[in-house]
Amino acid sequence: MMRLLRIVMLALLACAGMVHAQAIEPMPFANHAQELRFQHLTQQLRCPMCQNETLADSNAPIARDLRNQILKLMQQGRSDDEIRQYLVARYSDYILYDPPLKAGTVLLWFGPLLILLGGGGVVLAALRKRKRDGGETTTVGELADNGEDW
Amino acid sequence: MNRLLPFIGFMLLVALFGFGIWWNTRHDPNAIPTPLLDKPAPAFSLPKLYEPAQTVSKADLLGQPYLLNVFASWCIECGVEHPVLEAAAPTLGVKLVGYNYKDAPADAKGWLAAHGNPYALLIADESGQTALDFGVYGAPESFLIDAKGVVRYKHIGPITPDVLATKLRPAIAAMLKEAP
Fold it and tell me: Which residues of B touch A145 (CB under 8 A)?
C-alpha cells in the first residue's frame, strides 16, 4: 500500500514538473550569462495581465510577448536600465516590482516608518503614564479602569 | 474615555477596510494607467484586415479624431462590448477604428461576420508587436486619439453602457469642444 502511494506521489510530482516546464518555453539564449541576466531581469518585472506573477513565471500571452521582446532588446545590446525604461514608457511603473521613489510613491516608501513612529509614540506615552502613576501600588480596580492593559 | 479607546481603534480599522472595499469596487484594480495619456500615440504601420496589401499608418489617420478599439475573436469580453459599440458607433462623434489584436485574419473576419462590423476602418496586428508600443496587455482596450495623434483617453476592459455614458462620451465631448 505504502509502495503504491509512493509511486502515485512520484507520478504526481513528475506531472507538476512537466506543467512547470510547459509554462515557460525555452528561449534561444546566446550563452549562459545572457540566460542568467534575462532571468534576473524578468524576475524583477511584473506581468501586466496577472499582476501577482513576474514576467519570468507568468504563462499569460502578454508575458510571453514581453519576454520575447526583452530578449530581442538584449540581443540589440540594450542595457537592463534601458529595457526597464522601454517597458515603463509603455506599461508605467506597474511593470516594476521595485517602485521608484517619487511624489506618488512617498507614502508607499515612508508609510511603514510613519506607522512605526506612531506606534512608538503610543508606547512611549503609555510608559510615561505608567511611570508617573508608578510608585503607588496599583489596585485591581485601577487596572480594570485605566484601560491600558487590554 | 480610555474605555472607549479599543472601540475607537476598532471603528478606525472598520473604516479603513471599508474604504479598501469601496476603493477596489469603484475602479478596476488591474487597470494599469497608461503612460501614453496626453502624449502622442506611438507610430505604427499595419495592414488592413480586409485588404492586407494596403497598410495604414499613424500619419494616414491624422486630421480627424478616432477611437482605436483593440479587439480579438478569442477575447470573450470583446463579445460583451461589441453590441454596445455597434449601437453607439453612429452617434459616437469620432471614427471607430478596429484594431484586431493577435488574431488569425480568418477568425477575425468570421467573428465580424457573426457579430456585425461597426468599424469604419479595420487594421490587423497579428503578431501583437505594435500593440506593445501602445502598452496593450489584453483585449478589449480602447484609445481615444485626437486629430493631432495625441492619446486623450484610454479605457481598459469592455466598454459597457455605463462606461460609454459616464466616461467615453464625456471624454469625446471634451476633446471635440477643445479642438473642433
Answer: 2-3
β-pair type (B121-125, B95-101):
parallel
Q: What domains can you pick out in chain A, each with its CATH number?
A: 7-100 (1.10.8.640), 105-146 (no CATH)
Give the per-residue pLDDT at A74: 95
Chain A residues with beta carbon closer than 8 angstroms to that of B137: 48-49, 62, 91
Please report the residues numbered 28 through 67 in chain B whose beta carbons come closer than 8 angstroms to any beta carbon of chain A: 30, 32-36
At B32, give phi and psi (nearest 5°): -95, 125
Q: Give the single-character DSSP code of A93.
A: G
What DSSP state is assigned to residue A100?
-
* Contact between chains at A90 and B133 (C-beta distance less than 8 A): yes
Alpha helices in B89-168 (DSSP H): 105-115, 129-133, 161-163
**Res B180: pLDDT:** 58
Which residues in A lie closer than 8 A to residue B3 (C-beta atoms)?
145, 147
A20-51: pLDDT as tens digits: 444 567 888 989 999 999 999 999 999 998 87
**ipTM of this predicted complex?**
0.83
Peptide bond into B140 cis (omega under 30): yes
Cβ of B137 within 8 Å of Cβ of A62? The answer is: yes
- CA distance linking residue A16 with residue B170, whole number of Å: 50
> Which of A69-73, A107-111, B7-11 is the least confident region?
A107-111
